[in-house]
Amino acid sequence: MSRLANSEWDTDPIPLVDGPRHRLPRERSRRRGRATCRALGALAAVAVLAVTAVGWASYRNLSSGITTSQALAGGPASVGGAQNILIMGLDSRLDQHGQPLPQDIYDALHAGDETVGGYNANVLILLHLPGGNGPVSAVSVPRDDYVDLPGCPSGVCKGKIKQAYGLAYQQTLDSTSDSIAQSTREQTAREAGRKAEIATMRRLLGVPIDHFIEVTLGAFFQIAQVVQPITVCLNGDTSDSFSGANFHRGVQQIDAAQAMAFVRQRRDENDQMFTDLDRTRRQQAFIVSLVTALRHGGALSSPSDLRNLLQVAQQNIAVDAGFGLADFVNHAATLSDSALTLYTLPISEFSQDTAGEDVNLVDVQGIRAIVHNVFTTGSPSDTGSASQSRSVPTTLDVVNATDHAGLGTAVERSFGADGLTAGTVTTAERLAEASTIAYGPGAGEAAHLLADRLQLTATASDTVAADTVRLTIGADFPAAQYSTDSATLPTVSAPVTTVDATASGTQAPAPTDLTEMAGAKTPCVK
């Protein structure tokens, strides 16, 4: 099923495809250059920050200009040395400090000026770095996936995943006094947006998020200007007057302005089946091509280009306060032999919400299983899932200690994945204010996974049976996010087909396919 944009003039995006990294100039460049290039190859999805990270070694005084955030404070963490890094690309036409961008950028965007756009997170990529020398993987989440929004920002409990940031941003901005400095109000609102988007991604994917990188619109064009020309490849001719895209089939070199059109295109005048998921795969292909341009171009060895890239990072990037740039570079260097695979998560079908907005309906359990398997085994298949790795399955019992009838059953079905087998659903004798998780012998791993999703604490208990997790739902539980209508409860996940993202013709990816792209060479995409 094909779907066009929500409005005729699509000014929604600007996938901030994430930018570059670089080597140190001259003598130190030769000593660390090889490790840096290996890091580039392994961490294509965080190209923007890598530029800053490597530059940090020789321009330490400049790194202090990058915005840092406390939005991740207190969240669950990965174990075994692994790291999950969330890349958020905002569609704001302002820089990280809320200031307008240079006019040449607005001219190149083909999508309006600073008065257009908002704070939707139009690019959402979760990058997984293994604790050892295993495969590096990244999953892209389609921006219109219709999901639960934790905390119901601005009173919205279910919406497009990209909206979590903007709804929380606006809610906080509206509640902040006008007497406070504009820059302070802006950063306070952005912190709320980051927290909301991170919580939404955690809820959907069911895995910890250890670090995040937020990139605003201006970075993409400015980095592309430094490293152009960039080589891309298309499976067929394509054009779109809205984004300015006009490309021919095959391998070609594009400049920075064309790169904006390449990653923004969400219509094709030659192909009515072009969807927003095809644009997501464009973003991934561009990331791979951008890294190739950085490795083989002159930007990494030019002090002036390096300074320009660092300034771009200062103006347009925010990271969590715990993100250590030096540690990041060192970790990247240890992954020199690791393959990189980029996945685009599937949807179940295109639909519309109650307001008539186009949305992607998704199978939450299926998505969690895919991400869990990719991050733990390097494969989207279920060969390494918790349900098969344990000889005895873990049972989930739910106790409903609220006055919401049917909530226990809804929650049981929602979280009956990743090795959790449906157990009993009971009603508590009295209401509880706080939700709790307790587990018996052998159920610790599953209990902590569930606790990560719900942002609760799991506690061992001798009153819970072996291989059993008991979730007690209290008044603090987000009941509005779980339908108690039995007709709308989640069903068992259907098998998902994994398709090469570069396939064409009758083999071209469908929205319901999980697509994978190797982070090497120049991928040819739709």
What does this structure look like?
By secondary structure, the protein is α/β, with parallel strands linked by helices. It is 34% helix and 20% strand. It is built from 15 helices and 23 strands. It has a nine-stranded mixed sheet, with helices on both faces. A hairpin with a 5-residue loop joins strand 14 and strand 15 (358-361). It is globular. Residues 1-63, 383-391 and 486-492 have low confidence and may be disordered.
Quick rundown:
With 526 residues, the protein is of the alpha/beta class. The chain has helices spanning 26-42, 47-56, 60-63, 103-109, 163-175, 182-205, 217-227, 256-264, 276-296, 303-316, 325-334, 364-377, 386-389, 407-414, 444-454, and strands at residues 67-69, 83-90, 121-129, 136-140, 146-148, 158-160, 211-215, 230-234, 238-240, 245-247, 250-254, 317-320, 340-344, 349-352, 358-361, 394-400, 420-427, 436-439, 458-460, 468-473, 498-500, 514-518, 524-525. It is built from 15 helices and 23 strands.
Q: Overall 3D geometry?
A: globular
What's the main sheet like? 9 strands, mixed
Multimerization status: single chain
- % residues in beta strands: 15-25%
- Mean pLDDT comes to 76
